[in-house]
Amino acid sequence: MSEDLLSIEDLHVSFSTRRGMVEAVRGVSLTVGKGEMLGLVGESGSGKSVTGFATTRLLDAAGRVTGGRILFRGQDVTKLRGDDLRHLQGAAMSMIFQNPRAALNPIRAIGLQIADAILTHKKISKDAARTEALELLRAVQIRDPEARMNAYPHELSGGMCQRVMIAIAISCNPALLIADEPTTGLDVTTQKVVMDLLADIAAARGMATILITHDLGLAARYCRRIAVMERGRIVEEASPKTLFSVPQHAYTRRLVAASPTATSRIEDLVTEEERERTAAIASKPRPELPHGTPPLLEVRKLAKRFNEGSAAVADFSMTMAGGESVGLVGESGSGKSTTSRMICRLIDPSEGDIVFDGQSIGHIASRDFHRSRHRKDIQMVFQDPNESLNPRYTAFDCIAHPLMRLDGMRAGDGLRKRVEECAERVGLPLDLLPRFPHQLSGGQKARVGIARAIACRPRLLVLDEPTAALDVSVQAVVLQLLDRLRRENDIALLFVSHDLNVVRMLCDRTIVLRNGNIVEQGESRALFDDPKTDYTRKLVEAIPHIETGPALAAAL
Amino acid sequence: MMTGLGATMVRAGRRLLSSLPALFGVLVFTFLLMRVLPGDPAVFFASGPNAGKEEIEQIRKQMGLDKSVPEQLVFYLSDIGHGNLGRSMMTGQPVLKDLRERLPASLELTFTALLIALIAAVPLGVIAALRPGSVVDHGVRLFCALGVCVPTFVSGLLLIYVFYYLLGLAPDPTGRIDVFTSLPPQRTGFLSIDFLLAGDFEGWWAACRQLILPAVSMALFVIAPLARITRASMLVSLGSDFVRTARSVGLSWHKVVVTYALRNAILPVITIAGIVFSTMLGANVLVEKVFSWPGVASYALDALLSSDYAPVQGFVLLMASLFVLVNLVVDICYGIADPRVSIE
After folding, report:
1. Lowest-confidence range among A51-65, A450-464, B74-88, B129-143?
2. Mean of pLDDT over chain A
3. Using a CB-CB distance cutoff of 8 angstroms, which residues of chain B are in contact with residue A105?
4. Which percentage of chain A shows pLDDT scores above 90?
5. How far apart are CA B281 and CA B138, in angstroms?
6. What is the pLDDT of residue A280?
7. Shortest Cα distance from A418 to chain B (angstroms)?
């Protein structure tokens, strides 16, 4: 690390928008040595990706470097033009993107896409490029690479697509690899496999890597040095160990606190200064139910088949008491979303029954369930707060709509009061109510989604990955909100998630699903501390634990 | 990729079968529509304005118009089943023969027009998308707007005025070929191809010169939708993640724009081109009239104006079948161009 491969000096990047110039990066300076892996961590809007794109010269047309230098091997990247730039891109530095499926050309066979990259920088024949592409597929450990050469991205899983993307990025042995959220959106186990692969390849080929991520745990696991970004600036740069044990900057402290770990509790997710506000609500012990009370929800041997195919969910049974929180975890394709939708009565089960509050609701067609009196008792919070709000409804309309439909309320003071009360309960400032979704931040939209779900005072709230699209600090607040709602209003929570750390904190019990079957279930803490099945153990081990980071770094 | 092609064929076949009921519906609907329209063909085709009642009655009987509408429908359908589209009162020939003579003229004109439109529209759309908001982009938009808002007969007449009357570059705008040119042996019915097959290049050139003005005036009208859709989908394509990936590994400009962006962007253009083609086939009656082009559309219009049922019904059936066929071709093209479209 005698000589820096990349050194960014006082970088400024601005975007021209309708409201004038917006500065996304304001004076970032950092260095990356040869073969080093640097973590660039921050929340959305912190400018971490923009820094990466500025380095590889892939900024949008609206973005411009307005100041500073990016020196790569002593050459200022920002001043390169034409062929010089093209020789740099791919050959000397390359990039791996978030959402691998979209990052590959959907109508070009992956073998050709890899060969395209090779042929751009090497003067070799097409056949030779094809052979090299095949070799690369082997290097990224794709099974049956000969057959996969002719596959199209839609025929591969997300993890496979990301491997192909890695193959393209390393095809010309660049000296610097910038990975922009390479594992976001992948399953935890896939996440680990892909990241291990990436780290191994980078180490074997001596490539320097910048890992851009929002996940502190992930950065800590793979990087020896982490730079934390906030609002376009680097606020702190240290080894993972220092960062977690003695974070210097207030923002880092908040970020570290908000990142869920194996041992954190909901209360720990905010720093001590912020804790004061929430501490007022003491945990109320749940009143013991008289013996023999029927459970709030009882699911019996639920199954779902799509198009006569194999079962997406088979033989799923569970019970939930009022005010209880149950986590439903599993990888994508495990049937957890299907199950939650059946319980919500948004889709019809093929077999089995759902008993809510002593009454069978499984046989009511999902089409007609909106007329059932139980509709308002079972409500749902959806994954993507952006997509699940009607863009033409204001926040007020979004919350008022279920009240008018299900509670039969009319527009007027009564409705206004109820909506405002809901907004207050989820901590949504009242002056935001007349706004449209696009005028709200991600966290605010999540609150609108929750307010809408609790508007009719449901007794069961089904949450499908409600925090997956949110930043950790926002996630922390939303989780606290959910926990508080549960304790205050005795709402039972069915929490569907792939984030085991979150489930561990929020849920009393956890059910692990795989390929539509229940693999394991039990008390959350016991289940995570001492998994009974190999599958659960694999899931638990795949979570990037912050504690293991420094240990790994020290071992290197 | 045999499996992909096979799946496309299966899909195409299924599509063809499922369009049969629609074709039947078109058949019955046109039949009924013609019966509801005002005008009595018997009166029209009687010897003259002074024709007596008996004569008209006799013609009516001869045409089968004295029977009830359901009966007529049954006769009509059974005739269609035997491949008989009836006889035109205007030309005195079987409708099938008339259509067969005129369809190649229409098809040749429409194909050429579509080709010209695509050759002009795709580059225009691509250029506009590469520099959105620039002078070029606005220029393309203006050109497209002009193309759509000038009716085809006006642009046709303007073209004739400039290229035939003022410049004298174009031949008389009368039909497919000069009356004095000897026709090549008919093989495809497309004059430009038949001349080539016969090795008569002079004749080929003459046919092309006749073709170019009507084809251009038709093309002008459809450049707009094609260029707009090209621009829009090209913009989406250029802003997509995979184009960013292509740029990130330093692929050449040509490779990024053509192989990565345009090939993806062309998919919706295929669909629109299919729709445009079907519309042009029927809607080119104005151009056919202006340039005295002996096509099916002007034939059908003449028949409609003289209450000649059989040709109009034959024409509508022909158009519907062509529409089905064009959609099928679009479907197959799409299946080949986009590997994601497999069995639905």
Report:
1. B74-88
2. 85
3. 242, 245-246, 260, 264
4. 31
5. 30
6. 46
7. 42
Whether residue A3 is predicted with pLDDT greater than 80 in this model: the reply is no
Using the beta-carbon criterion (under 8 Å), do A152 and B339 form an inter-chain contact? yes
- Is the CB of residue A73 less than 8 Å away from at least one CB of chain B? no
Tokens of B23: 């074709």
Which tokens belong to B73? Answer: 């429908």
Sketch the domain layout of chain A as residue ranges.
4-259, 297-545
The yes-or-no answer to whether A4-259 and A297-545 have a common fold is yes
Compute the average pLDDT of residues B72-99. 84
CB distance B218 to B152 below 8 Å: yes
Q: Is B259 part of the contact surface with chain A (CB cutoff 8 Å)? A: yes
Tell me which residue range forms the domain holding B251: 2-337
Q: Do A107 and B264 touch (CB under 8 A)?
A: yes
Question: What mean pLDDT is predicted for residues A321-350?
Answer: 88
For residue B186, pLDDT beyond 80: no
Greatest CA separation for chain A = 80
| B342, part of any domain | no
Instruction: For the domain covering A297-545, report its CATH number.
Output: 3.40.50.300
pLDDT at A383 over 60: yes
Across B174-178, average pLDDT: 78
Pick A422 or A20 by higher pLDDT: A422
Residue A117 contacts B, CB cutoff 8 Å: yes
Amino acid at B77: L
Residue B291 counted as domain residue: yes
B179's CB contacts (< 8 A; 6+ apart) are none
Instruction: Give the up-direction half-sphere exposure of residue B333: CA atoms within 13 A in the CB hemisphere.
Output: 16
pLDDT-based confidence at residue A29 (cuts at 50, 70, 90): very high
Instruction: Spell out a b/e string for A421-433, using b for 16 or more CB atoms within 10 Å of the CB, else e.
Output: ebbebbbbeeebb
Chain A interface includes B342 (CB < 8 A): no
- Which of B1, B248, B269 to probe the A interface (max A CBs under 10 A)? B248
User: Cα(A219)–Cα(A241) distance, rounded to whole angstroms?
Assistant: 11
Q: Do B340 and A91 touch (CB under 8 A)?
A: no
Report the alpha-carbon angle A153-A154-A156, nearest 5.
70
As given in the structure block, the two tokens for residue B131 are 């520099």
Q: Let me know: does A380 contact A462? Beta carbons within 8 Å.
A: yes
* CATH number for the domain harbouring residue B208: 1.10.3720.10
Task: Report the percent of chain A where pLDDT is more than 70.
Answer: 92
Question: If you search the block for the tokens 């970004």, which residue do you land on?
Answer: A229
More confident residue, B9 or A191: A191
User: Can you name the residues that pair with A353 across neighbouring β-strands?
Assistant: A300
Contact B245 A103 (CB under 8 A): yes
pLDDT at A379: 92
* SS3 at position A323: coil
Note whether residue B343 is domain-resident: no
Mind listing the pLDDT tens digit for each residue in A198-237?
999 999 999 999 999 988 888 988 999 999 999 889 999 9
pLDDT at residue B263 above 80?
yes
Rg (CA), chain B: 24
Domain count of the fold of chain B: 1
Cα–Cα distance for residue pair A60/A297, rounded to 1 Å: 50
- How many C-beta atoms surround the C-beta of residue B66 within 10 A? 13
Does A52 score more than 80 pLDDT?
yes
Fold designation for A4-259: Rossmann fold (3.40.50)
Task: Say whether residue A166 is in contact with chain B using an 8 A CB cutoff.
Answer: no
Report the residue count for chain B: 344
From A88, A97, A171, residue closest to B241, measured CB to CB: A97
Q: What is the pLDDT of residue A288?
A: 57
Q: Which two tokens stand for residue A10?
A: 């006082």
Cα A342 to the chain's mean position, in Å? 24
Check if A136 contacts B (Cβ < 8 Å): no
Assigned domain for B182 exists: yes
Distance from CA of B227 to the nearest CA of A (A): 22
